[in-house]
Design brief:
This protein is α/β, with parallel strands linked by helices and 471 residues long. It folds into three domains: 236 residues, Metallo-beta-lactamase, Chain A; 108 residues, Rhodanese-like domain (Oxidized Rhodanese, domain 1), CATH 3.40.250.10; 99 residues, Oxidized Rhodanese, domain 1. The chain is built from 16 helices and 24 strands. A six-stranded mixed beta sheet has the order 1-2-3-4-5-6, with helices on one face. The protein has a six-stranded mixed beta sheet with strand order 7-8-9-10-11-12. Strand 8 and strand 9 form a beta hairpin. The chain starts with a strand and ends in a 9-residue tail after the last strand.
């Protein structure tokens, strides 16, 4: 069977391309649709369907632009109520793509419209299941997202639906089916996904905690809900965009790709209240940046951290990027619904600096410098990694303030004492540093290599949680 996984690492997202006899289907596409159109053109195929497994929370799907540009029919599963023209499949309805068949199996639980698509080849053999966020490799979809959009859908109710869907609709299927999930490790749509992005259903039945044959409904609900972190704030906003519709990416790019000199950039920022988002590497940002700007580097998990740190997807944004990276930044912002980029600084930060305008810097120290100056009783350190990372190992005495919670714990950081910030590699700690600078903190330094560098020094480290220092 000709089925291809198109994986985007920065979002831990998998779309799928299916082609047979000149007809193609795309499953759960990203916002930028040209790569799918190009892929079909390579096979001289026409995209017939765009199948959506559910209304996504962690990204804005490209189904509307694909329909507009190719004439493909958008297909959702039962109970879906989109605010635009789409075909709502019946449970067990079969669609033909060339000589292949795609069977819609309603599997509510992650969301109520969640649907798994069973792929059947030209000989009638069942090949695999595209599971969306119903079943991952090593995990299942979290059941606490839909309640942020529909209030009476509690996480307990959804977890119960998911238990039934897994037991009654997926687990009875053939063990040799290949599982094609929508996400892999790093996505916030589950809590313990594997780094592997495909597997057989039979192996998942053997190793996936949520598919234990002897698991009761009550045990499933308890285990599924235990350890869930708060979902990123942009998730409900993305769901609504996917339900109601959104602007074409072409329009978003046209609005955002406006070069601005330093004077115009400053004027637009003042007039619009736009956030200045600097997407350069942490090392370059630290050496000089526009006052009040925020650093989220393109080379990391850019879209996810934008979603975590910028509360409103409608926020106006002005970009500072490396030359030639403007379109990439706008596109990756749009993947998670941030469509209001108003322009970018032509010539980048060097243009701002050369114009004589004020700029700021952030002090950075190496792990070796930290080792040389470390005083366990007097050194004040903040660890902005996830709690799970901190619990695993951390510098003795370091206070844990996860980056996505920093705005709720700003009072924890002193203004009258020097302190040091570190994360895993220096990426997240620079985001934290920019936020602190923006809020008036000055007397701190960031560890360049983060805990990765610290772990290679003799700085005292702990492998247990110190209750007095953990938030």
């Amino acid at each position: 069977m000709k089925i291809e996984q198109i994986y985007t690492g920065c979002l831990a997202h998998a779309a799928y391309y299916l082609e047979s006899n000149g007809e193609a289907a795309i499953f759960d596409p990203l916002r930028e649709v040209q790569p799918y159109i190009d892929r079909a053109a390579k096979d001289n195929a026409k995209i017939k369907y765009v199948f959506e497994t559910h209304f996504h929370a962690d990204f804005v799907s490209g189904h509307l632009d694909l329909k507009k540009k190719t004439g493909a029919q958008i297909v959702f599963g039962p109970t879906a109520k989109p605010g635009y023209e789409a075909y709502i499949a019946k449970d067990n309805e079969v669609f033909e793509v060339g000589d292949y068949k795609v069977k819609a199996i309603h599997t509510p639980g992650h969301t109520m419209e969640s649907t798994t698509y069973l792929l059947i080849d030209e000989k009638g053999k069942e090949h695999g299941i595209i599971t969306g966020d119903t079943l991952f490799i090593g995990d299942v979809g979290r059941p606490d997202l839909a309640q942020h959009v529909v209030e009476d859908l509690t996480e307990e109710k959804l977890a119960g639906h998911l238990y039934d869907s897994l037991r009654n609709r997926i687990m009875p299927l053939n063990d040799d089916l290949i599982v094609y999930p929508n996400h892999g490790a790093g996505s916030a749509c589950g809590k313990m996904m594997s780094k592997e992005t495909t597997d057989t259903l039979g192996h998942q039945k053997a190793v996936n905690y949520a598919l234990r044959a002897d698991m009761t409904r009550e045990e499933f609900i308890e285990e599924l809900l235990t350890g869930l972190t708060t979902p990123p704030g942009y998730f409900p906003q993305n769901v609504l965009m996917n339900i109601k519709g959104y602007e074409s990416l072409d329009t978003v790019l046209e609005r955002g790709e406006k070069p601005l000199n330093a004077e115009s950039f400053e004027a637009v920022a003042n007039d619009s209240g736009a956030l200045v988002l600097d997407t350069r590497d942490a090392s370059d940002f630290a050496k000089g940046f526009i006052p009040n700007s925020v650093n989220i580097g393109l080379e990391g998990s850019f879209a996810q951290w934008v979603g975590e740190m910028i509360p409103d997807v409608k926020q106006n944004i002005l970009l500072v990027t490396y030359a030639g990276k403007e379109e990439e930044a706008i596109t990756r912002l749009s993947r998670v619904g941030y469509d209001n980029t108003l322009g970018y600084l032509e010539g980048g930060f060097e243009q701002w600096k050369d114009s004589g305008k004020d700029y700021e810097t952030i002090q950075r120290i190496s792990a070796e410098q930290l080792e040389a100056d470390f005083d366990q009783e007097n050194s004040l350190l903040f660890d902005v990694r996830k709690k799970s990372e901190y619990d695993s190992e951390h510098v003795l005495g370091a206070v844990n303030v996860p980056l996505n919670e920093i705005n709720q714990h700003l009072s924890t950081f002193p203004k009258d004492k020097e302190f040091i910030i570190y994360c895993g590699s220096g990426y997240r700690s620079m985001i934290a540093s920019a936020i602190l600078k923006q809020r008036g903190w000055q007397n701190f330094a960031d560890v360049t290599e983060g805990f990765k560098g610290i772990s290679e020094t003799k700085v005292p480290r702990s492998e247990y949680v110190c209750p007095t220092t953990m938030l």
